Amino acid sequence: MRTDSPRKARPHSIVIWTLVALIAAAGWSVLALSRGEEVSAAWMVAAALGSYAIAYRFYAKFIAYKVLKVDKNRATPAERLNNGIDFHPTDRRVLLGHHFAAIAGAGPLVGPVLAAQMGYLPGTIWIIVGVIFAGAVQDMVVLFFSTRRDGRSLGQMAREEIGPCGGAAALIAAFAIMIILLGVLALVVVNALAQSPWGTFSIAMTVPIALLMGFYLRVLRPGRVAEVSLIGVALLLLALVAGRWVAESSWAGTFTLAPSTLVVWLVAYGFIASILPVWMLLAPRDYLSTFMKIGTIALLALGVVVSLPTLKMDAVTDFASRGNGPVFAGSLFPFVFITIACGALSGFHSLISSGTTPKMIQKETQVRMIGYGSMLMESAVAIMALVAASVIDPGLYFAMNAPAGVIGDTVQNASQVVGSWGYEISPGDLAAAAKNVEEASLLSRTGGAPTLAVGVSEIFSDVTGDGLRAFWYHFAIMFEALFILTALDAGTRVGRFMLQDTLGNLYKPFKDVSWKPGLLITSGIVCGLWGYFLWVGVHEPLGGINQLFPIFGISNQLLAAVALAVCTTLLVKSGRLKWAWITGIPLVWDATVTLTASWQKVFSSDPRVGFFKQRSIYQDGIDRGELVAPAKTMDDMHTIVTNSTVDGVLTAVLALLIVVVIADATRVCIRHIRRPALSTLSEAPYVESQIIAPAGLIPTREEKEEVRDAVGAEPRG
Question: For residues 411 and 439, what is the distance between their CA atoms, to the nearest angstrom?
């Protein structure tokens, strides 16, 4: 069996990579050694991009060829099981766009913004180091092993490779966490698009554009990816410009939708995207969205290099050690690593890597570009979000992200409270900041998205002038909604795969993920579940998905522990014991962080951290007949008690399920080391591939020659 192997480095290559390493080292040195002096955000960009390039070139290549031993001659599920619905060999460029768009949801935009409370340095270190050694590794290894197993879902792989006990725990935990994640993502989209005709129109137009692209590639001009890309980008830019025209025209009312209306449209869209063939809507829409995502982030990085904005946030704030920050409570460890999920390490990604992508990938050799490369791209998004949060005035940052119950609802109160934390900003400056982006107020605009939009407008307006500051702010709000929606549609489809795999253990026809009755039933169940939590959350400020929002970060990172446990088990069982540290070390770190955070969220005596302590305080208030802020009515008090109880119990249950998975995985690994003959692998049989496709974005000289040879060998007639 032949495998591809890396080529030896040439002298000019050595020179180039030495320069890249020096740039990255310079960026890290400035960030780490500065003490009080002004630091340009360009150094953060240099440290990130240089580190990503080195990691992709060397570490990812080592894992792909030395550890996993990817084989370009082995047929993937997309080729062997091609049915044009879920299994479909997809051009690597389109699949890269789909995979990146699917994994890049709210996390890389919002998490780093919230974590800026601790300073820019802890977040920068975790985002870059975490993605190189944990997040991107997880995504690539899960994608590889799922591809070797007919695109099996993460939970089903756990059941088949770890055993019934750990597998059942993984299936339950993965599906429950997926519903929570989908509900939270949908809520962020609703909040971003509600009463926004510009955003609603522009995002709605991506659906017909994607359908056109899908039919263009499938029927009109198969294989013409460059052509359809130009058409799609042109139409997308037109939709963005037209969105602003619509917002200022008589059509604005048509596209100004209430939150409840958006819920209905989102659920309907999620259901349709889940059941249509992947080539028709999902893949081209995500590919199209990637152009806007990557284009905007690239322009943001270029804007940083051109304008050289200064990082105004402290490298490490006092909140990092005190743990009493107004944005979120808790100490730097473990809560920075929970708050910054996507961008460094995300369990949600493992569901995509074992969901849609392994059913569409053409060649095993592409797992490096699609799995590892996409995660580096998302980490770059997280870095730019952290830059955006760190270049605005810290006083404005805390005024925007602190709850109204803490800073009040007037600029005078907010100025005084923020000043007491050591960050001075005048009432006039707060009012001017809102006026500059054409908002009535920026106070307590929590959630991270508005802060990111202000940071984006700050950077872009330095290049284009202050006259466009409001335009860039509203563009960023719409951009964030598009970013998140692409994770919602792919996530719904993956949730369907997970449910089908689970039900397939009870009724075999469900195991065929393209079986139409099962496809419709499971899509309806998944959309119904997250749609129910979303509907209640929209109508009840403290209910529905709002109830589960506090456990979003922990549940996501607990899911990453499941993925890393499965990866480590498969490395051991497949004869790669000496390389098990590649996922084993990240597993130990992630388990330590998430279980520590789970323990604190359940048992902490600080009511801002511990769910049950918070419950007891509000229950005592109910017993005394007194209101406790921020509750405004006794109904609010009862709701908070219910929410705290549910969150505490769910956190404890999910943590216990993950402990079961890790313990069972450890048992299986030890048994294999002692008695390898007892182990079995559920790997699909080897079939020779007939597809010729490059491993990377740009074909090598050898790959071009291989394509020419294949074309020349075809019979003429």
Answer: 14
